[in-house]
Amino acid sequence: MAVIDGLLKLIAARGADSLELSAGRVPELSKAGAPMPLSMPELDAQFVEQLLGEVAPALELPAGDADLQLPYTVSKSGATFTVRVSRRAGVLSLSARAGAPSRSAAPSPLSSSSPLPSSSPLPSSSPPPSPSPSPPPSAPPRVVPPLDTHVFDALLQRVEHSDASDLLLSAGRNARLRVDGELHELAQVLEEDEILALVALDAGALETLRARGSVDRSLDRRAVGGLRFRVNVFRQHGGVAAALRPIRREVPTLEQLRLPPDFSELVARSDGLVLMAGPTGSGKSSTLAALVEHVNRTRARHVITLEDPIEHEHVSRRALIHQREVGRDVESFAAGLRAALRESPDVILVGEMRDAETMAAALTAAETGHLVLSTLHAPSGPDAIDRIIDSFPPHQQRQVRSQLAAILRAVVTQYLVPAASGDGRVVVFERMVVNRAIAAMIREDKCHQIRSQLTTGRDQGMISLDQHLAQRLAAGEISRETARALADEPDVVLARGRVR
User: Fold this and answer.
1) Could you count the other beta carbons within 10 Å of the beta carbon of residue 403?
2) Going by C-beta distance under 8 Å and a sequence separation of 6 or more, which residues neighbour residue 303?
3) Segment 165-175, tens digit of pLDDT
4) What are the φ and ψ backbone dihedral angles of 424, each rounded to 5 degrees?
């Protein structure tokens, strides 16, 4: 379905009179002359041209800064709209209003040889044979039953005013909220065009979605008192789906995340690589944001972050922080890392090490006197090391092992698990600090031996996941079922975690 479909539906869904779409401006509904800005970013010229192409595929506007008013009727989703197209001083605008144009409206200036869009068939001198019945012009578009008349705002507000960590949307299916790790079904059912309208993808993002099957972006609702969202839109069997994660306004502290104060030692070094590992949704990005904020409040450093998209927005305090977004400010993580080496940083945060090119650039940055912080999807510290090494071709792996042995400082693997009280979640983690013994194991391809170091290296700040599970269990913070499900040695954890 076309993106314009979902935007046009908003006219009826919100009881508006018209919809204004103009390059360089936020989309705006109008009701009784009062503007009603949508919770979307400003539209770029390419996106407005794409919308025009969806409304009138065969329409070719003259070159130059002509001022044109082109009434055009488009029937989509059972409703009829009049879309006026204008270009003034080079700025393209679309204005849509429900209903057919008046008889006196000027015809669209298309030549007789130009094919007309399928939504406006060419008149014929002879009546068409057996025309199929068409819906009455006054039939309203199908509107998904919302929590209130503002269906999109209502969904996002429900996330903003709850403890939900994610809003999941799938075309033709009920929306779902994730609260404390559990999914809760909502009454709302959005179609593909409505999802695309909600997440407000620009032309570049839509092209990425078509070419790659998924795209990341951010959605900013602060202008209407809401939050920013990290958004991933992806294609799946049956249409488009999206995952929206709210970004809370304040950058969290280590204390607020219930992480121990000595986590600050992870950013005490002046160089090297520190990794946050764990599954999706385990709070890796929040922990890194808290570490960056600790640097920001305590040290005079230059910090560059590379994120996709930017999540927590830092305000420079003692540190100078520059945040760059992949796709907007820099082409890729790897390109951003290469550029950062010329920008005099002390600390570089890489949102995620997704590929060998990014990993190689991160290793180089850590080798050249920078402290590099990043995340990786891996279930443990040893597995994170193996994943990095295995990302490179065999003939390069020996060199990568040597690099990691020299520059890897620590790997923290964290999980968010249900609290025993049933209220919220609790973080449990493994912390691996790279000492001489572990560095030698990495260099000699003996990462399977690292686990023994985790259990005996407490005096160096290490703790295994099983040890931390036992601590949480003994404190009554998690249940025996949770500990058993996550532990490597469940019986040992349950024995050590008896409530004292």
Assistant:
1) 22
2) 292, 295, 296, 314, 319, 320, 321, 322, 345, 346, 347, 348, 349
3) 899 999 999 99
4) 85, -170
pLDDT, tens digit, 9 for 90 and up, residues 226-266? 788 889 999 998 789 999 998 877 899 999 999 999 999 99
The answer to whether the CB of 410 falls within 8 A of the CB of 275 is yes
- Considering the four listed CATH numbers 3.40.250.10, 3.30.2130.10, 3.30.450.90, 3.40.50.620, the one that applies to the domain covering 3-60+67-98 is 3.30.450.90
Give the C-alpha separation, 233 to 4, whole Å.
17
Cα 464 from Cα 456, distance rounded (Å)? 9
Question: Rounded to two decimals, what is the model's pTM?
Answer: 0.66
| Second CATH level (architecture) for the domain 151-247 | 2-Layer Sandwich (3.30)
**In Å, how far are 294, 451, 476, 485 from 466, measured between CA atoms?**
28, 11, 15, 11
More confident residue, 317 or 48: 317
* Contact (Cβ atoms closer than 8 angstroms) between residue 76 and residue 8: yes
Q: Where in the chain is the domain with CATH 3.30.450.90?
A: 3-60+67-98, 151-247
d(CA 137, CA 82): 12
Spatial contact of 391 and 355, defined as CB atoms under 8 Å apart: yes
d(CA 124, CA 118): 14
